[in-house]
Amino acid sequence: MTTGPRLEEITTRNLDAALGIRIRPDQEHAVEPVAHSLAEAYVRPPGIAWPRLIVDEGRPVGFLMAFLDIDWNQDGTDFRSGLWRLNIAAEEQGRGYGRFAVESVAAEIRRRDGKQLYVTWHPGPDGPEGFYLGLGFRTTGETSGDQPVGVLDLG
Q: Given this model, what pLDDT does residue 1 score?
């Protein structure tokens, strides 16, 4: 019985599988490795980072980490949720797992009564801008560091 991809919370049982996710070498400059993401999740206040392993047919195919209700401007005026990291294993790319990841984060944000999903991406011709714009994100005109900010309305 084929059920399609699913998300798993990162636990001691699947930690090594998550750490084993490797993107294509030409993408390594654009996204942090899973180990870095998990370290960042660990040092954030509880509930901010939402790391998940993407599994299909029992095999790990990717990793995502969402951010939930962060104080975007660090002044209490703008709280946002979105996709923080997305690592799809090199050999699994082009099979819809990136779309599944975005849809999964959107579902979690909706479950928490959120209305928008934010993302930033590495700029340039080798970055994922086309992927995100193709899913309906629009640029906000903002940057986070040197990365453009995109938003997807969930209404």
A: 55
